[in-house]
Amino acid sequence: MRSNAIPMPVHATAKSTSPPQALNVLQAHQVAENALAMALHYLRASASNIPGATRKAVQALVALNALQGLEPASTGDQRQTNGRA
User: Are 35 and 63 in contact (CB under 8 A)?
Assistant: First the structure.
């Protein structure tokens, strides 16, 4: 039996054009978003899983804190990090 697959050389893989720092920022965004989505899922379920939602919310906060340390601060950016509005 013949295969219609086209053989690809091993060295023909896509190379990442993003620096590792940018990939870390994207990963932290993804982790935070997924954790918050799961927390909402746990809360919206018919048998609300409050401990699970709390755990996922904490994971999201950890990811957001890591993200804050990863993103380069712009010169005009005056972010407040003391928890006050």
Answer: yes
- Determine the Cα–Cα distance for residues 37 and 9; give it in Å rounded to an integer: 39
Cα dihedral sign, 16-26-53-48: negative
Residues 6+ away with beta carbon under 8 Å from 20: none
56, 40 contact by CB (below 8 A): no
pLDDT band at 79 (very low <50, low <70, confident <90, very high): low
Q: How many CA atoms lie within 13 A of 63 on its CB side?
A: 19
pLDDT in tens, 32-62: 999 999 999 999 998 889 999 999 999 999 9
